[in-house]
C-alpha cells in the first residue's frame, strides 16, 4: 500500500476504533492469563511464551505509542501541516520497507526486542523529521513567535538526550554484553545516524536564528549551511 493510499485509508474514526478494540483485546488477554494461571509468575510466563498473547500486547504497545506520539506532537509542534503529514507517512513507509529488508538479513535475531527497538527507532525518526522540517520552514515565515522557539529548543534538547541514551544502550549491548550482534549493529548505526542528523538540525536552527536577528540579509550564511 503506497503512502498516499494509506493516508486516505487512515481516518480518525478508524484510529479510535482500532485503539478501543486493541485495548479491550489486551485487557482480555491479560485477564484470561491471570484467570487460567494460579499465580502471577505463571501468568507472566504464559504471556511471554504465547505468540498470540505477545501479538496482542505488542499491538497494545503500538496504541500506547500512538497516543504518546499524539500528545508529544501537540505539545512540541501543535497542529501539523498537510505537507508534514505527507512527509511523515512517506518516510515511515520507506523506513518500514528498508527494515523489512534488514529483517531478511538478520532473521535469526528477529524477536520481540527487535520489534520494540524498531518501534522506538521509528518513533524517534518521526520527531527528527518533523523537527528538521520546522527548522527549514523558519525562513519562510514572516514572523516567528516565541512559543515556536520554546518548542524547538525543548524538542531538540529532548531528542538529543534520547539519542545519547539509546546510543549508549546500544553500544553497551553490542560491545559489553555482545548479545545479538548483527541486530545491534543495525540499530546502533541507526541511532548514531539520528544523532548526527540532529546535530545538523541544531546547527541549521542556530544559523537561521542568527540570520533572522540580522537587519540585513546574511550573504555568508551559505558558507556554513
Chain-wise SSE layout:
Elements lengths: L2 H7 L2 H25 L3 H10 L1 H26 L5 H24 L6 H25 L9 H32 L3 H33 L12
Which geometry do the CA atoms define? globular
Reading the helices and strands in chain order gives HHHHHHHH
β content, as a range? under 5%
| Major sheet details | none
Low-confidence stretches: none
Number of DSSP strands? 0
The class by helix and strand makeup works out as: mainly alpha
Count of alpha and pi helical runs = 8
Distance between the termini: 36 Å
Helix content: over 70%
> Rounded to an integer, what's the Rg over CA atoms?
21 Å
Number of domains: 2
Mean pLDDT, rounded to whole units?
A: 83
Which key phrases capture this entry?
single chain, 225 residues, mainly alpha, 8 helices, transmembrane helix
Structure description:
α1 (3-9) packs across α5 (82-105) and α2 crosses α3 (40-49). The longest helix is centred in the last third of the chain and has 33 residues, at 181-213. The protein folds into 2 domains: 13-78, no CATH class; 80-213, no CATH class. It has helices at residues 3-9, 12-36, 40-49, 51-76, 82-105, 112-136, 146-177, 181-213. It is built from 8 helices and no strands. With 225 residues, the chain is mostly helical. Helix content is 81%, strand content 0%. It starts with a helix and ends in a 12-residue tail after the last helix. The chain is globular, with a radius of gyration of 21 Å. 14% of the residues are buried.
Amino acid at each position: 500500500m503506497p503512502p498516499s493510499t494509506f493516508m486516505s485509508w487512515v481516518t480518525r474514526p478508524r484510529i479510535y476504533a482500532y485503539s478501543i478494540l486493541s485495548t479491550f483485546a489486551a485487557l482480555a488477554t491479560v485477564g484470561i492469563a491471570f484467570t487460567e494461571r494460579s499465580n502471577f509468575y505463571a501468568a507472566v510466563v504464559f504471556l511471554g511464551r504465547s505468540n498470540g498473547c505477545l501479538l496482542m500486547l505488542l499491538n497494545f504497545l503500538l496504541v500506547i505509542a500512538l497516543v504518546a506520539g499524539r500528545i508529544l506532537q501537540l505539545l512540541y509542534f501543535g497542529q501539523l501541516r498537510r505537507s508534514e503529514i505527507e512527509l511523515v507517512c512517506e518516510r515511515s513507509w520507506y523506513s518500514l520497507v528498508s527494515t523489512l529488508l534488514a529483517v531478511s538479513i538478520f532473521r535469526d535475531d528477529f524477536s520481540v526486542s527487535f520489534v520494540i527497538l524498531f518501534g522506538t527507532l521509528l518513533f524517534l525518526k518521526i520527531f527528527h523529521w518533523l523537527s528538521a522540517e520546522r527548522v527549514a520552514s523558519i525562513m519562510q515565515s514572516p514572523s516567528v513567535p516565541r512559543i515556536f522557539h520554546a518548542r524547538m529548543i525543548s524538542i531538540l534538547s529532548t531528542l538529543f538526550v534520547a539519542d545519547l541514551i539509546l546510543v549508549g544502550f546500544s553500544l553497551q549491548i553490542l560491545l559489553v554484553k555482545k548479545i545479538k550482534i548483527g541486530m545491534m549493529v543495525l540499530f546502533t548505526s541507526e541511532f548514531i545516524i539520528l544523532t548526527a542528523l540532529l546535530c545538523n538540525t541544531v546547527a541549521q536552527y542556530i544559523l537561521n536564528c542568527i540570520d533572522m536577528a540580522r537587519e540585513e540579509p546574511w550573504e555568508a550564511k551559505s558558507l556554513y549551511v
